[in-house]
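Take the subject:
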Amino acid sequence: MLTRRTFLSLPAAIAAAEPAEKPNIVVVLCDDLGYGDIACYNDESRIRTPHIDRLASDGVRFTDAHSPSAVCTPTRYGLMTGRYAWRTRLTHGVFHGTSPALIEDGRETLTSLLKRSGYRTGCFGKWHLGLGTREPADYSRELRPSPLDYGFDEFFGIPASLDMPPYLYIDGRRAVEQPTSTISDSGASPRGPFWRGGAIAPGFRMDEVLPKITERAVRFVRESLQPFFAYVPFTAPHTPWVPAAAWRGKSKAGQYGDFVAQVDASTGQLIETISRRGVARDTLFIFTSDNGAPWSEPDIQASGGHRANRPWRGQKSDIQEAGHRVPFVALWPRHIRAGSLSSQTLCLTDLFATFAAVTGRTLGRDDAEDSYNMLPALLGKANRPIRHAIVSHSGQGLFSIRSGSWKLVLGRGSGGFTKPDRIEPGPGEPAGELYNLAGDPHEDRNLYQQHPEKVEELSALLERYRRQGYSRPMA
């Protein structure tokens, strides 16, 4: 708890910091956190999340926010570039720990945009956008490109997911310790401490990763001159579910729930650091997730009824709502009304155009092709829908397009982890799926054959977005 004594122990120059001309920005991107994991989104959650709940009570909570993909790498590309990843060479699946860089040379990122606006920039956590130019990435040498080539002044983290080798830390452009040892497959199911076997640095411990990246992010926030941008892509609660000892047994949803509770605590450390610096009123703090949780019926039963993706259908990787509808909470005390609720449709690609608006920058015509300025929605000043449509992309590359309450899926099946992942339509059966989410949020009633005009309309819109190379309004 913050006390007068701890506040007075801070360096005077930090404690008396003047309000920033441009806001500090912090983005916490969780890894595989479900919409229903957080108590402020699910009053039946079996996990306590007091810090995230406080963000929502003091800021704005979005109920219709989406990741651009239902899996990791394409979402991170979309967030960093404001562009759908299916416009790149990555049309399905994710990268591995040895994959080469996905972001194209010369492409503007939201970080390079902020850096040109005078921000000190740092990234701490899971990168998962590829490193270097060759497959496999050579961690014995300086990595080019690394996050430092996309506008970050500092980077500390791991190459990909916490269950993907090689297991090592990168600081800037170099490995902290070479992965000279080997770890075997965990041999467990993905519902427990699951990881893939491979190369590992001798000093690397999986349960230490979240605390280490939190520590570096906190230090950056504590010591950076204003304005600063901290991108904090947590490695949790993605598998392996390895909560630190202090968090084991803290939830009623097993190891996964304990890991989520630790994510909440790490978020709280960042919030506390901002408060202690006295810059909370001048800081835009965003908390969200890269996709839904890999949580199916056996997990629900094993956890005693915890529904990580409540109330949506499906799970991570699926084209159904649970795959890509994510929690999204924003706090900016000087500008966002406490306790706000927004039903605006938002995509994580929209952070690019929104941050441009926040800092007074103009987007180039070839930048952030799928990014909408959501600042009016953050401030509660949007009196109409900002997005005309949103395109979603499953782990196997199955597309959906949503406009208003209508959602068209260009195929049958989940396109992801849930079986059946693909359904070949028989004679007279619908070739795709069409839902009206206003009356059918769980996507139970396929209206594909009843509304051919809506199928045609949405199919044509998606084709136009593909053909023209952008979906945002162009002046």
The radius of gyration is 21 Å.
